[in-house]
Amino acid sequence: MIQISKRGELTRSKALLIRLLAIALGILACALITVITTRQNPLLVLQALVKGSFGSSRRSWIFFQNTAILLCIALAVTPAFKMRCWNLGAEGQVLAGAMATAACMVLMGRAGLSTAVIIPCMVVSSIIAGALWAAIPAFFKARFNTNETLFTLMMNYVATQIVAYFCVKWENPKGSCKIGVINQKTNLGWLPELGNKYILVLAVVALLTLFMYFYLNYTKHGYELTVVGESDNTARYVGIKVNRVIIRTMALSGAICGIAGLLLVGGINHTVATTIAGGQGFTAVMVSWLANFNPLSMILSSGLLVFLETGANELATSCGLNASFGDILTGVLIFFIIGSEFFVNYHVSFRSKKKEDK
Amino acid sequence: MFDFISFIPRAVMQGVPLMLGCTGETITEKSGNLNLGTAGIMYVGGISGVIGAFLYENAAGTEMNPFLTIAIPLLCCIVGSILMGLIYCFLTVTLRANQNVTGLALTTFGVGLGNFFGGSLIKLVKTDIPSVVLTRTSQAFSRTLPFADRLGWFGKIFLSYSFLAYVAIALALFASFVLNRTRTGLELRSVGENPGTADAAGINVVRYKYLTTCIGSVVSGLGGLYYVMDYASGVWSNNAFGDRGWLAIALVIFTIWRPSVSILASILFGGLYILNVYIPTGTNLAIKEIYKMAPYIVTIVVLVISSMQKKRENQPPAALGLSYFREER
Q1: What Å distances lie between residue A138 and A212, A245, A257, A318, B101, CA to CA?
Q2: Which member of A131, A299, B118, B296 has the lowest number of beta carbons within 10 Å of its beta carbon?
Q3: Residue A270 lies in a domain
């Protein structure tokens, strides 16, 4: 008979061991699936995976850049999750930030303002747009206890349609229903390059990571949201204004998503499209959760997921298979890691069935 | 004049996948499992059916048994959906994992699976067909009543659909009956409201959660199958199913957890989904994109209003989204 009991505090190393074991098993399962579907030598598969992310210096830079963006969104959703507020609207908040940035670039570019004026406007408007997009559900959550999971989810599609609207309205060239590269000739509103075009994004996200780490662990705000997450009633009892914490934390969450949108539009793509967030708002939820809401561990978990995704894409293209293969592998790996949490929290013991058990 | 006679059948055809998804998700949520993987499950339901039909069409050649043409995709769809439901249950019920994360992972996995096989099926089976077009299976699935055409507008609005559309309505009514009028339904609702109490009353919480989630997955999966075989005429194109899975989850809230309401509500949503095609916009194409917001805005409004009213019968199941562990009561 199997007996399950709750564990006390596990030592850190042991918990880490269980998680690493799960990741190893997950990767093994992924490898198995890959070998079966592609019928290729496992070593070649591994080689393709590594080549996808680190095949050339350009690829490595892109790998770091993608990791940074995913990390940025994951950082954004983390404070909300720590508060047990399921912000599934990161996708929409990124889009809101991206749209605000693009709007600044298009409109102020047309008005002929200089980059020195446009960029501060882009930064401010993207942060406000993202924060607003998260604060709306938060307000209703705080005021009426409206289900934030579903509300934020719906806000994603509202944002998508707003972006779609402007894509048609500002289409360039005519009839393409796409905005195209904004200010291609003048480069107005493009974020400046530090050394090469990747470093700025990496630097901003690195700063955000440190900020979030300190915000969550060493500030009053961070403490308050943790208490709210643990128990509403405790928080009220010690005099924390729960409603204010909820709205503030969600707005922060949205603001950082807005920054991700700013980086995507101003720094990387120089255009906006409905697919610009590319489902990363949802992947970020998993990144944050895999890292146990620790901003520093998120660097690893976002790196792992991006590595898997790019590697699987590379593999799929080289075998002539569909690029969605990466999603399958990501899913399998996450199933394993999700499953492993059980063994971190609970102790499973087997014992022979005896009479006194009944 | 707004063309209702052509609008309504199209709204219904858009609505049927949503109806199935919504019914499936409602059943699941009544057991306290917030399955955000519905979007993925619907993809898997669709692609499993496509794989089954594809293999059968290739194996059977020109001689296709009409019964098997329907049965094989249907069975494949059911098996695929059950497997997805089992993954979800194993992780959230047996291993007590976080339901939101599991659901999102399931969606990533399911959508990936759908697009992967949709794009690679031909390559994997090594045939020389250019694309996955299941015309014959689709014809079998979308066959309508023979006398529907002769009844004018009445036939067009009420009788012009394929059997899965009527199955969807029947399932919604049946689910509503079971939930509200039978002992099983009562026990199921108690599991979703307060699993601790249900457990104390001798109800097998784990079994209820597993069973309802798997049944719910199958119903949702059928929505995917209907979409591919009937609405899309047997042509699988990647990501064509779009965000309908999420819309189905939105519908669950819109219908405040009542499958019987979902019949009309999903047709309404189907109508909202294609409204932009029917509203004359002239040269202003951009405004169409704003009309496409309608289903989501409506859902948000309902969500807010139902939370403001705080009517007890309009609330989500109390234990929705929480894992149950007997020793933590």
Answers
A1: 20, 10, 15, 45, 20
A2: A299
A3: yes
Q: How far is B93 from chain A (nearest CA, A)?
A: 11
| Of residues B87, B109, B250, nearest to A328 (C-beta) | B109
Task: Give the model confidence (pLDDT) of A139-153 as tens digits.
Answer: 999 988 888 888 898
Q: Among candidates A138, A151, A160, which has minimal Cα distance to A89?
A: A151
pLDDT of the residue at B22:
94
**Does residue B281 have a pLDDT over 80?**
no
Q: How many CB atoms are closer than 10 A to CB A179?
A: 23
Range of the domain at A211: 58-292
For chain B, the domain total comes to: 1
Distance from CA of B257 to the nearest CA of A (A): 14
pLDDT at A358: 39
B17 upstream amide cis, omega within 30 of 0: no
* Chain A residues within an 8 Å CB radius of B246: 153, 157
Q: Is the pLDDT of residue B101 over 50?
A: yes
Burial (CB count within 10 angstroms: exposed 0-12, middle 13-18, buried 19+), residue A348: exposed
Q: Which pTM does this prediction carry?
A: 0.87
pLDDT tens sequence across A265-319: 888 888 888 888 878 888 898 888 888 888 998 998 899 888 888 888 887 777 7
Asked whether B108 and B116 are in contact (CB, 8 A), the reply is: no
When mean pLDDT is compared over A39-53, A142-156, B155-169, B235-249, the highest value belongs to A142-156
Mean pLDDT is highest, among A17-31, A93-107, A324-338, B58-72, for: A93-107
Give the range of the structural domain holding residue B28, as residue numbers without chain letter: 4-144+155-328
Hey, of A6, A148, A154, A282, which one would you mutate to test binding to chain B, going by the most B CBs within 10 A of its CB? A154
- For residue B105, give the chain A residue with the closest CA: A331
Residue B33 forms contact with A (CB below 8 Å): no
Q: How many domains does chain A have?
A: 1
Q: Is the pLDDT of residue A56 over 50?
A: yes
Angle of helix B163-181 versus helix B4-30 axis, rounded to 10: 40
CATH of the domain at B17: 1.10.3470
C-alpha to C-alpha distances, B146 to A28, A101, A347, B9, B154, nearest whole angstrom: 54, 56, 62, 16, 14
Q: Is A124's pLDDT higher than 60?
A: yes
CA distances from B25 to A233, A288, B41, B198, B229 (A): 31, 26, 10, 21, 21
Lowest mean pLDDT among A65-79, B77-91, B118-132, B197-211: B118-132
Q: Residue A184 domain-assigned?
A: yes
